[in-house]
Amino acid sequence: MGYMDFVERGIEVKFSGKLKFNDLYKEITRWGKHHQYNIDEKKYEISRGEEGQNTKIVLELNKKVSDYAKISIIVALIGTELKNVKIKNKIIQEGDVLVSLTNFIKRDYEDVWTRKNLYRFIREFYDRFIGNSRYEIDEKLLKKETRELRNTIKDHFKAPKLKK
Predict the structure, then answer these.
(1) Please, are residues 77 and 89 in contact by the beta-carbon 8 Å criterion?
(2) How far is CA 142 from CA 29, 53, 130, 135, in A?
(3) What are phi and psi of 139, to 5 degrees?
(4) Percent of the chain residues topping a pLDDT of 70
(5) What percent of the residues of the chain are helix, what percent strand, and what percent coil, each to the nearest 5?
(6) DSSP state of 111
(7) 0.90 exceeded by pTM
(8) Residues 6+ apart with CB under 8 A from 117
(9) Quick check: 93 and 21 in contact, CB under 8 A?
(10) Which of 31, 30, 11, 22 is CA-nearest to residue 161?
């Protein structure tokens, strides 16, 4: 199974107002494809609440950076009490949206080094004392790309919604 090193947790972007929830989803997947991430939809839930529709989508974006490590970003899109509103012959949603980002580095994702205890010891020793700078580079890349994704989401919320 390998093991995961969490780098940052709980990075949140909140929005309240009118938006196209589907366009936000498309913007995140477009960003992931542009940065060579593989996108895996882990969860998709829709439920009816008292005031509107509640939606939860969890995406995992992961990219292979070496034969031993992958970097991943978990994106949770949570829409609460979303109501469909018709404006200028277009249907958009009105409500509260929370986007939560968590990132981590998954090491030994193919279970090559964890099968035998001696191999695992050698790999842990190498990671801790010899090859540590390699993971610092991966962490910097992961933090940079998470900030870019957060800024892309913020820009999507700030952009005029009904231009087309």
Answers:
(1) no
(2) 17, 33, 21, 10
(3) -65, -40
(4) 84
(5) 35, 45, 20
(6) -
(7) no
(8) none
(9) yes
(10) 22
